[in-house]
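Troubleshooting log. The previous structure file for this entry was overwritten by mistake, so regenerating from the original sequence record. Sequence copied from the archived sheet and checked twice against the printout by T.R.
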Amino acid sequence: MITRFVVSGTDTVVGKTIFSAALTGALEGYYWKPVQAGLEGETDSETVLRIGGVQRDRVLPEVYRLATPASPHFSARLDGVVIDPATLVPPVTDHPLIIEGAGGLLVPLADDLVFADIFARWRIPVILCARTSLGTINHTLLSLEALKHRAIPIFGIAFIGDENRETQRIIGELGRVPILGRLPLLPELSAETLGRAFRDNFEIASFMEMPA
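Regenerated output below.
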């Protein structure tokens, strides 16, 4: 079976797109962001293409491209679009597939639908990206509770930021999930520097041990 992961975050701007780019490049996989909210400037798919060392044909098109950088439910409303969960079906690929959500797990896609509901339907293991900075303990443990409440499989936590050993330790202990590694903040972000940082801080082979 082909390895598949959902990459989510404890909240927005946590670094999950950078992590997704690194993981997609390391696994020589496909990247898919089903819902993109905000089209001004560089989209997440374009970021992955630029810094992930990913082939262009392995960055798959979004299902929904919404103009306003806001919660997808509101951005869709402004665009006159209704997000239909039936259209959010993970594509079949011949290499690992990395799926990136938008914002955190409880970001709404509609008035009665959040991203975690979609993840529960897919049953694909989730990698939760978390900051190492102040406030991340609460956000991360609450996110883990949301995943466990819906019986969504959790592959582990990827920390992003400067090392904070006590924060990382207590999250792993209280959350009772694997800590996959920590991606440091990089002064220069490129496919080369990101790839090297990922290889130095994560065991790439471990991501191939739990196909879904």
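The two ends are 7 Å apart (CA to CA). Archived copy saved in two places this time.
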